[in-house]
Amino acid sequence: MKIKQVILRHLKLDLLHPFTTSFGTEYDKDFILVEVKNEDGLSGWAESVAMLDPLYNEETVKTNWHVLEDYLMPIVLKNEIQHPDELFEKYFAHLRGNYMAKAAIEGAVWDLYAKEQNISLASALGGDRSTIDVGVSIGIKDSIEETIETIGERLEEGYKRVKLKIRPGWDVELINRVRQEYPDIPLMADANSAYTLDDMDRLVALDSYHLMMVEQPLAHNDIIDHADLQARMKTPICLDESIHSVEDARKALKLGSCKIINIKIGRVGGLTESRKLHDFCQANNIPVWCGGMLESGVGRAHNIAITSLPNFTLPGDTAASSLYWAEDIIEPEVTVQNGTITVPTSPGIGYEPSIEKINKYTVYSRTYRA
Description:
With about 375 residues, the protein is an alpha/beta fold. About 35% of the residues lie in helices and about 20% in strands. The protein has two domains: about 5-120 and about 360-370, 2-Layer Sandwich (Enolase-like, domain 1); about 125-340, Alpha-Beta Barrel (TIM Barrel). α1 (about 60-80) packs across α3 (about 100-115). InterPro entries: Enolase-like_C_sf, Enolase-like_N, Enolase_C-like, Mandelate_racemase_C, Mandelate_racemase_N_dom, MenC, OSBS/NAAAR.
């Protein structure tokens, strides 16, 4: 495969509703859309999930653009690529970190590769599911009653799991009230690193509510304190921000830091490492699920493809486009029926990026040629 052209676009989409977590509120979504083209003009697409500010991790839209432009794209445009795995394993291996930037261009190459092979991205990755189960993530609301109302709406739409964002002061009382209203629904809590071991008693109190898991309660780069907390908690801890690689996962499991792992393509550097992490967890009987980063339809399509692998046994965050955007940039948009999404079978990501809509939301773009 020879990449002849790369197009970077900075897009901005307005969220239908503000989305609040323990580290802040998002009102809109700035992101980098990556398009790669081969000698025949066929395109592969992916997006960076880096945020405008370094809140989830240290990467941002601006730093991703720099790394893509100055380091990753020259590699992609210079080399003949036999298989997308070569990018993460060979060509990008000497460059530290910058996982989201790596994942963005690697994902576009994966999409192009699948199209050249005339197979779906899910098939190219080894996925064998025709449908995937999906849950929904609900941000911090102005009141508990508003949260309960939103849960009811999402359950009526068929979502198979509810994830609630929590933080100190918005946790036990919230979960208690939700369990009074919905005692049996699959429910989990996501702290986005908002707690310390000083909050252990408060976190252990969540054991009373039969949660599927508590996601990343402690520091974003920690696996040691999580092991101490997991030893006290009956509820499984799921690690998110702490896991960037199979090696991170190996160490976390050896310490007993978690019982579940969330796989985010951008956080671990791309689809190649995501698949390796999936395989490692499957071999060690650790269930995984696919987390979300408020992606546009292009990113959601990649999430759907990776979730078709067999060890994604828990519903992920890949909800319908219509929950977040007035209009998405793909056709058709991602839809959910009875809590499931049908995995596309057409070549590549299986959704068609709309150039008209992409141009509508593009703030800036630049084209690079071999």
